[in-house]
Amino acid sequence: MNDIEISQAATEAPITEIAGKLDLSADQIEQYGAVKAKIKLPVTGDASTSKLILVTSINPTPAGEGKSTVTVGLGDALQRQGKKVAIALREPSLGPVMGIKGGATGGGYAQVIPMEDINLHFTGDMGALTEAHDTLSALIDNHIQQGNELNIDPRQVIWKRVIDINDRALRQTVIGLGGRTSGIPRQDGFDITVASELMAILCLSKDLADLKARINKIVIGYTYDKDPVTVADLKVGGAIALLLKDAIKPNLVQTIEHTPAIIHGGPFANIAHGCNSVIATKSALALANYVVTESGFGADLGGEKFMDIKTPVLGKTPDAVVIVATVRALKYNGGVDKNNLQEENLAALATGSENLKRHVTSMSRYGVPVIVAVNRFTSDTDAEIDQLLAYVKDELHVQAFDTTVWANGGGGALDLADAVVAAADEPSTFKPLYDSDDDLVTKMTKIVQNIYGGRDVELEPKAKRQLKTFQKQGWDKLPVCMAKTQYSLSDNAKALGAPTEFTIHVREFVPKLGAGFIVAMTGNVLTMPGLPKHPAALDMDIDADGKITGLF
Ligand code: ADP
């Protein structure tokens, strides 16, 4: 059976029952039908002894390596062991659902359900974010049209529009055509919703008041005199915040094994900060004793951003890090063509394992226990699995487990769960990667050298010019959010495995003052993806009775 068939065959428990597992009563949730709910805010509870487990991975290959699958399976395994557990995931974006990568609900018998709903609109958060974002766009253009009291330079509006679909044709647009009554013409463009600063703000806000305060700090562009213009200047922070009044509440669903799963916020980790919301993680920590969460793509992207951007806001560092690896992905990183990944290839596995080593080293430097989970595919041979487990234990000196959650649900990760519980009990020795006082270039250099394994950072002319503006504005000591290809440790998507001695090229920066960081655009990474030649949408259908097929 494929993912959707397994999901459709599962029986859901009423959402009130799932809420009950977290000691939430029916009036502490807002039900969206029988099996979905939003959790009312604020969530209270004692989080002082709760353990936070972060799941991350090696560099992904085009197929996705099963990070969400292992996150869900590990949560289920902890529940099977009688722990009070909550899984905290990100919400899927329609871009990859319709495009290439698939959903974000796990797979096989380690899934959150109902997967169709979660992958398609869910409780409407993505729609609310898109509309809130584009409301701000409309208000900016209306301000310029109606006399432009703030003296906004239409050539320097940096607040683009968004849509939650991969639509390459919208990357560069011209708006305001059609004469006097149709706006002031200017060049604009679209990002995917998950790259919106509003998404980052939703995910980093502590509460509604913080959300509004952060929205007011957004820099939408510059005046003709090159001064920044903020949402507060436009006096529309309240209107934008109110459009997010429901989106700010975390969503509650369940796994196939009825483990509570809180799914909230969905920034990508290559072009945004890649972590689910602080509100959801905090709520999960207050409601459960063990929280299993994931960050996007590899440890170089989501892992680093979880440690350096999310944890300072969350006020809690992970108690253990699980790095997911697959034999297939390591062979791909070792040079095997994606069509030949089914065949045993111990030599390529050994070469590609250097990629895993880099991620184990980089996550270990934060001082948090690291454990490797090998997500087993049916095509993996025993010889391959044995070689990989031995390599991790003998060469990298960390624990490694063969996990089969895709086939067996929580039963496929019981050893991993035991090890995670033991590791999380060790006293925390967390060490941040950079000082908050370091300037932007120092922060980026530390990331490149310690996390990516590269040599240095080079700024292209535009980025150099921007740095001067940032110094003048006092923005040059903010945390940095690297926008980089997910496929390589470097900024060249084709440099697989464990490249060394490379330079990361920063094209330009995007100041995100509401989110509280500066995005550094490296290589040729794009904030609006395109669809592939055969988008996943071509295989999807719904029949007259509403039965969905082809959704992975
Ligand atoms: P990631 O979070 O790394 O992007 P997912 O957990 O979303 O990856 O999994 C991507 C796809 O791979 C899903 O369709 C899932 O069903 C499939 N998958 C994951 N693990 C396995 C496995 N062990 N065997 C077969 N398919 C798997």
Q: For the record, what CATH class of the largest domain applies?
A: Alpha Beta
Q: What structural category characterises the helix and strand content?
A: alpha/beta
Intertermini distance: 11 Å
The CATH homologous superfamily of the largest domain: P-loop containing nucleotide triphosphate hydrolases
Q: Look at the structure and give the mean pLDDT.
A: 96
The overall number of domains is 3
Low-confidence stretches: none
Estimate the helix proportion, in percent: 25-40%
CATH topology of the largest domain: Rossmann fold
Give the biggest sheet: 12 strands, mixed
Write down the overall geometry: globular
The hetero molecules present are: adenosine-5'-diphosphate
- Our Rg estimate from Cα atoms comes to 23 Å
Provide the β-strand percentage band.
15-25%
**Any guess at the CATH architecture of the largest domain?**
3-Layer(aba) Sandwich
